[in-house]
């Protein structure tokens, strides 16, 4: 692809990541106080419903990687856009908690379908020297989506259904955009379906990557799901919680610079810095609620740290699994989401016992502990 085509692909990819990850998957926590009040949901049930978003991702991630490898990346990416549209539409309409849960699950499948195949698109259709930059920009779509959701939540006020309806309409429009922008299969170079080499997942250099992805998912799910509820409960001001969400999203946009950070500081150094940064932002949030600056500082550190860390995990995966990028990439983010599915469910049962604040302290400490994980020289050497 030439430079203009690459830019168009990057913009379309960023947009669909924004609606599938930033909106369909992560915005449930933003509207959690209003949803809980309308349906009268318990902490345990909230945890289970929130966990369905991550379970939806788990159900779809291997499907997306398989379709991308066997057929073409374009197919699962468009299916992901459709799933985001349908799932968020169900959330907007939901007359009962059961329909709400179904919408959360379907919406959660959308990034599992749409996101991993972009590793194939990037490796196949962009210059090697630009792949880190293109991936980092596409990955930063999560931050753009989260940042967009905040102002809309302020405008909608307590009408959370209106916000989800707007999200669904936006997802449909962006799906059509990707249908036009994504490259089709080259019939001259690809003659038919290819076998998926699942044995590549046994690569010994990937073990640390997989463990880190899972544990990072567990601790960050606590923040994504319960941060807004914690702030609303401790401050009594829902508006501050929404502004907190906007700061989180805007900070996440800095993930577009992840490629430069990894190239400059190396994999190990960047990884350790991010583990401490994200852990500190999670663990100190209950202590910072007395001041707006403290709240926004936590949001900024978490937003930037989370998006850059996910970009780092993706780059690390693409360098290890060059033979079938979407397979290794998909499994890495499968484990990340497995952790994010375990996190809310476990938290829902722990909160009545420990309280929100203690849960955040423990999650933050666990994340900081990831900085002690040693990354093998062999794995790091595969990065440019």
Which characteristics define this entry?
single chain; 384 residues; mainly alpha; 17 helices; globular; disordered C terminus
Query: What is the percent of helical residues?
Result: over 70%
The total beta strand count reads 0
**Secondary-structure element pattern, one letter each:** HHHHHHHHHHHHHHHHH
**Overall 3D shape:** globular
Q: Report the average pLDDT across residues.
A: 82
Number of helices: 17
Distance between the termini: 21 Å
- Rounded to an integer, what's the Rg over CA atoms? 19 Å
Low-confidence stretches: 187-193, 377-384
Strand content: under 5%
For the biggest sheet, the summary is: none
Structure description:
The chain has 384 residues and is mainly alpha-helical. It contains 17 helices and no strands. The longest helix is centred in the C-terminal third of the chain and has 30 residues, at 325-354. Mean pLDDT is 82; it is low at 187-193 and 377-384. It starts with a helix and ends with a helix.
In short, what is this structure?
With 384 residues, the chain is mainly alpha-helical. The protein contains 17 helices and no strands.
Please render the helix and strand layout as text.
Blueprint (H helix, E strand, L loop, with lengths): L2 H23 L6 H8 L3 H28 L3 H20 L3 H18 L2 H9 L5 H9 L1 H16 L3 H22 L25 H29 L2 H15 L5 H8 L1 H22 L3 H29 L4 H30 L1 H14 L7 H5 L3
């Amino acid at each position: 692809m030439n430079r203009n085509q690459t830019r168009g692909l990057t913009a379309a990819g960023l947009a669909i990541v924004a609606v599938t990850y930033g909106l369909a998957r992560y915005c449930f926590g933003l509207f959690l106080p209003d949803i809980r009040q309308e349906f009268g949901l318990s902490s345990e049930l909230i945890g289970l419903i929130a966990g369905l978003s991550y379970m939806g991702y788990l159900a779809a991630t291997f499907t997306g990687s398989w379709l991308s490898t066997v057929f073409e990346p374009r197919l699962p990416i468009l299916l992901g856009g459709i799933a985001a549209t349908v799932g968020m539409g169900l959330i907007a309409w939901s007359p009962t908690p059961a329909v709400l849960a179904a919408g959360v699950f379907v919406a959660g499948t959308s990034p599992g379908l749409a996101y991993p195949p972009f590793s194939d698109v990037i490796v196949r259709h962009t210059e090697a020297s630009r792949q880190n930059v293109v991936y980092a920009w596409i990955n930063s779509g999560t931050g753009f989506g989260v940042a967009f959701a905040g102002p809309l939540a302020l405008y909608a006020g307590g009408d959370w259904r209106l916000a989800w309806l707007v999200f669904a309409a936006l997802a449909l429009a962006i799906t059509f955009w990707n249908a036009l922008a994504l490259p089709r299969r080259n019939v001259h170079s690809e003659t038919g379906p290819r076998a998926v080499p699942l044995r590549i997942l046994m690569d010994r250099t990937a073990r640390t990557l997989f463990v880190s992805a899972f544990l990072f998912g567990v601790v960050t799910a606590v923040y994504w799901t319960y941060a807004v509820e914690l702030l609303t409960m401790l401050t009594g001001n829902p508006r501050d919680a929404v502004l907190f969400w906007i700061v989180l999203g805007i900070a996440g946009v800095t993930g577009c610079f992840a490629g430069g950070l990894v190239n400059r500081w190396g994999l190990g150094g960047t990884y350790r810095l991010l583990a401490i940064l994200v852990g500190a932002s999670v663990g100190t949030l209950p202590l910072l609620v007395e001041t707006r600056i403290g709240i926004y500082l936590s949001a900024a550190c978490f937003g930037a740290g989370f998006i850059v860390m996910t970009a780092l995990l993706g780059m690390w995966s693409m360098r290890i699994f060059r033979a079938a990028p979407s397979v290794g990439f998909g499994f890495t983010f499968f484990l990340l989401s497995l952790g994010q599915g375990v996190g809310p469910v476990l938290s829902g049962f722990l909160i009545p016992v420990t309280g929100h604040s203690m849960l955040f302290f423990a999650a933050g400490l666990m994340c900081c502990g990831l900085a002690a994980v040693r990354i093998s020289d062999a794995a790091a050497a595969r990065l440019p």
